[in-house]
Amino acid sequence: MCSSREFVAYAACFKMLLPYLNKNLIEAGCDEAGRGCLAGPVYAAAVILPKDFQNEELNDSKQLTEHQRYKLREIIERNAIAWAVGIVSPEEIDKINILNASFLAMHRAISSLKVKPEFLLIDGNRFNKYKDIPYQTIVKGDGKYLSIAAASILAKTYRDDYMNKLDQEYPQYDWKDNKGYPTKKHRQAIRDYGVTPYHRMTYNLLGDDRQLEIQFE
Hints:
The chain is about 40% helix and about 15% strand. By secondary structure, it is α/β, with parallel strands linked by helices. The termini are far apart.
């Protein structure tokens, strides 16, 4: 048996994702999806994995294919001690800004967990403390810790599901492919058709200094 410190060194050497930061605490990994989108909510997830959970395919959602993400979502949900997803609407994003909205989405995910975590692993370098739970921010944590990677996959796939549904209502914006991100086709559709109730009005929707006289459809 190796110590926690030895295991961390071993995992880093072989580029394995780490199972925990604190062996004796119930940890939840947290991550968000959709911060850079022009439309749609921001989603976040919180995941508590067993300390002995292992999966060589689990990684930052951005490094995976769509098929891999959905396959891993089933594995995560089946094996997690607890998991939850939090959502913040475009209207809320416009009121409190996307950074605070991302924190709020994480808070909502954490509050929905059926098991209360004793420590939080947060992807990124900033976070607003949730109640009395201590936390650690970790830059690129979704590529370092299993629980954060798992949270990134849940946040990404559940947000994608939602944007795919919105695409059926507004197919001209190509949300089934761009998921609300600022592609050329998405921005051209804003020029051609205006905005929808799902667009974030505080964002630079056209990608330049001009502001459209755009009306809700």
